[in-house]
């Protein structure tokens, strides 16, 4: 029997996320993408390896503190990179087109939760991330991040009036991101993978949707009495859930199932960091 909260979460996420990736692969191939789907599989494996590294080092205060700052730097770098249809969400690294928010926001959410976002520094970093998401703009990531930070703020122990005041900026940032013009045209195998899936294979599309839902909810199995770790699990679940739902409301990437290497790696980084902070907690 698996008793460790970290082990339960890792196994559920691993099974659900690889099922989501593998469900999307034949849909992409059937839609004429050829072997492009292998990039998702490679990203999943790379992410799993990186999560293993975080399992060994993710409890170090320096690691937890560095990840949100790294997310700020990476998001700022997107504003200096060449835009796509006027939108800044990516940084090119050789042949790779990296969505920095998808890569680094998931572990940043966990790190901010563990650092207790009630602190002035954490609140400032969270506000800066939200501002950068407006400037990109990325309504999907801004909304997912706002929900995650709302969970952290509401569970931070701050006075009610302070909590509600602190909620204003991430919520306003998400609204502002939705209101900004976004001219990026959807790529079928990225943003419309489920629409293609119902045509190529309805059972595969259904499997992909169920697997994505299970992967998104996987942090909830990490039951622990440690409040900061529990908050991190709830905040990460909120982030995953909104990122998965956003494509139904706009031209946003479908995590794990759709083509894109940033999401599998970013999701694994978050799971690895959270697991590291669950392993020795009651």
Compact description:
With 282 residues, the chain is an all-alpha fold. The protein has one domain (5-116, 181-276).
Spatial strand order of the main sheet: 1-2
Biggest beta sheet attributes? 2 strands, antiparallel
**Beta-strand residue fraction:** under 5%
Distance between the termini: 17 Å
Order of helices and strands: HHHEEHHHHHHHHH
- Which regions have little confidence, pLDDT < 50, spanning 5+ residues? none
The structure class reads: mainly alpha
What is the total tally of β strands?
Answer: 2
Q: Name the overall outline.
A: globular
Count of the separate structural domains: 1
Radius of gyration: 18 Å
**Helix share of residues?**
55-70%
Number of helices: 12
Mean pLDDT: 90
What are the key terms here?
single chain, mainly alpha
What does this structure look like?
The chain has about 280 residues and is mainly alpha-helical. The protein has one domain. About 70% of the residues lie in helices and about 5% in strands. It has helices at about 5-30, 40-55, 60-80, 100-115, 120-135, 140-155, 160-180, 190, 195-200, 200-215, 225-245, 260-275, and strands at about 90-95, 95-100. Helix 3 runs antiparallel to helix 4 (about 100-115), helix 6 (about 140-155) runs antiparallel to helix 7 and helix 6 (about 140-155) runs antiparallel to helix 11 (about 225-245). The longest helix is centred in the first third of the chain and has 26 residues, at about 5-30. The radius of gyration is 18 Å and the shape is globular. The model has no long low-confidence stretch (mean pLDDT about 90).
């Amino acid at each position: 029997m698996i008793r460790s909260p970290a082990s339960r979460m890792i196994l559920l996420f691993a099974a659900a996320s690889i099922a989501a990736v593998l469900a999307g692969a034949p849909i992409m191939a059937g839609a004429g993408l050829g072997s492009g789907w292998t990039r998702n599989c490679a990203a999943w494996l790379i992410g799993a390896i990186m999560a293993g590294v975080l399992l060994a080092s993710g409890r170090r205060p320096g690691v937890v503190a560095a990840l949100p700052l790294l997310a700020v730097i990476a998001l700022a770098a997107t504003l200096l990179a060449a835009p796509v249809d006027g939108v800044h969400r990516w940084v090119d690294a050789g042949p790779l087109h990296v969505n920095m928010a998808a890569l680094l926001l998931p572990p940043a959410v966990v790190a901010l939760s563990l650092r207790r976002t009630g602190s002035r520094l954490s609140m400032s970093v969270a506000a800066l991330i939200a501002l950068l998401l407006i400037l990109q703009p990325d309504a999907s990531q801004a909304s997912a991040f706002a929900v995650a930070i709302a969970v952290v703020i509401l569970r931070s122990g701050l006075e009610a009036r302070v909590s509600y005041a602190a909620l204003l900026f991430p919520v306003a940032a998400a609204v502002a991101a939705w209101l900004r013009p976004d001219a990026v045209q959807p790529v079928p195998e990225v943003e419309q993978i489920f629409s293609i899936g119902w045509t190529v294979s309805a059972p595969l599309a259904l499997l992909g949707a169920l697997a994505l839902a299970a992967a998104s909810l996987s942090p909830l199995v990490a039951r622990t009495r440690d409040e900061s770790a529990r908050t991190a699990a709830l905040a990460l679940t909120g982030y995953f859930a909104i990122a998965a739902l956003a494509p139904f409301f706009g031209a946003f990437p479908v995590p794990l199932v759709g083509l894109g290497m940033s999401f599998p790696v970013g999701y694994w980084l978050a799971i690895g960091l959270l697991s590291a902070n669950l392993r020795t907690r009651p």
